[in-house]
Specification:
Number of domains of chain B: 2
Largest sheet of chain B: 2 strands, parallel
Order of helices and strands of chain A: HHHHH
Number of helices of chain A: 5
CATH class of chain A: Mainly Alpha
Largest interface: A-B, 10 and 5 residues
CATH architecture of chain A: Orthogonal Bundle
Largest sheet of chain A: none
Oligomer: heterodimer
Number of helices of chain B: 5
Amino acid sequence: MNRVKIFRKQLNMTQIQLANKVGAARQTINLIENDKYNPSLSLCIALAKALNTDLNTLFWEETEHEQ
Amino acid sequence: MNNKLLNRFIGNLDDRDEYQKQEIYKELAFWGILLWTSTMLLMFASFIIDTVRNTLSFMTIALFIINLLYAGILMVRLRKKHLDETDCATIEEYETKKRRLRKSSLFAGSLFGILMIFLNLYLFPYLSSGTIEFSWFTLSVLVITAVGYGIAMYYVAKSKLKKHF
């Protein structure tokens, strides 16, 4: 599960605001937050920049071994 | 696909994002295949009507040209981008795929032969003149054509297997 929703809420942003910032549709942001769409690398980078974080923090899924 | 062309075709005011484009492409691809299949069936139906009437209509020729162009352009473009190639990492994989190709080509050749024999020896002569005249010469030509088709299919498909060992 990615952390896009958590970071967006922390920044008090709406889905539409985030969508406008990264140049995507609100529907796409909603699908990404619900793990129903795997975004391209360029959109992932745009999301990470818009949410003031990095790709690992936003998308990396830690396994039990890594924890 | 060109954004301007896509927007005009779909009827959008502004550009779609990557997810929306992906979904639009999926729909266009699926319905495009269905449309092509429909035009092929329509061409066949039009050809049967022409045979019964002993004419060759504009519609049959137009559908034939459209289908031929569509298939040809698609084949050339896929080949240009190497999208029709199959990579083989080991000799075993290559041999397994070659065996599968041999079976598929045999099936394709047999199906082509049976269909051609049925259409050219029975259906079309019956529809055009109302009689069936069996000819060993025509049968031999059709069998040779089917064998040639199967062999050609095998070598064309084999040329798309890329050895990486």
